[in-house]
Amino acid sequence: MKLYKIKIILSCLLVVSFIACKDSNTQEKTSRVDMLPYYAEATFTPNWLDGEDESLKSFHTIPSFNLTNQLGKTVTEKTFEDKIYIADFFFTACPGICPKMTANMKVLQDEFLNDHEILLLSHSVTPETDSVPTLKQYAENKGIINSKWHLVTGDRKQIYDLGRQSYFAEEDLGLDKTDEDFLHTENFVLIDQNRHIRGIYNGLNKTAVQQLIADVKTLKREIN
Fold first, then answer.
1. Nearest of 223, 222, 216 to residue 115 by alpha carbon
2. Domain ranges in the chain?
């Protein structure tokens, strides 16, 4: 009888330990800070500024742009007015990193599905082949929700200038490049409601994507 009771006690302890470990592993990731820094150049040196800081009036922002999404609709900076958004650069025929990036962007889409303050923006780096019908088919195949996630094509120089000079999405610092040099990056860039860069994340890394989710929530608390 004593042996039977010991077995029951050990079984209960194992169950409790399993639940504790499971809860620990599934605990929601939190942001590293109470507010996010601002970024102004390609080294991504953080600038810790209060939201009311006067220097933000002249601080780096994403400039005006004019592109076309998978529905053939014009997408400009006004599309994201008063919104937080995550930007990346991809192309539909990419056999390498892009499918994983798209899958992780879909994680973001699902996480913020019912939050109308959060949008996603993916720029094609092969706009000459990624036509509106091609982007539309890609969106359908990947379960992309058109109102949440814009896949955009347009003028190649504009897209490449945005990627390199505005979002600083590429990591090849110090290398002189033109729009003839292919733009290929796995980075996701977090933009706030005033078009300031607030974070950069490895779009291939699940932990980085979870950190991005946590930072979006921090940013929302900051502006609300």
1. 216
2. 36-223
Q: What is the pLDDT of residues 156-169, one digit of tens each?
A: 999 999 999 999 99
- Name the 3-class secondary structure at 141: helix
Instruction: Give φ, ψ of 201 to 5 degrees.
Output: -140, 145
* Res 19: pLDDT: 33
The pLDDT assigned to 176 comes to: 66
Cα-flanking dihedrals φ and ψ of residue 205, to 5°? -105, 120
* DSSP code per residue over 163-199: IIIIS-----TT----TTSPP---EEEEE-TTS-EEE
Q: Where is 68: in which H helix or E strand? A: strand 66-68
Q: What is the pLDDT of residue 39?
A: 98
Q: What is the CATH number of domain 36-223?
A: 3.40.30.10
For the residues of 80-99, what is the DSSP string, one character each?
GTT-EEEEEEE-TT--SSHH
Its pTM stands at 0.85
Q: How confident is the model at residue 32 (pLDDT cuts 50, 70, 90)?
A: low
Count CB atoms within 10 A of the CB of residue 224. Answer: 6
Q: How far is CA 189 from CA 56, 68, 95, 105, 155, in A?
A: 19, 20, 22, 11, 21
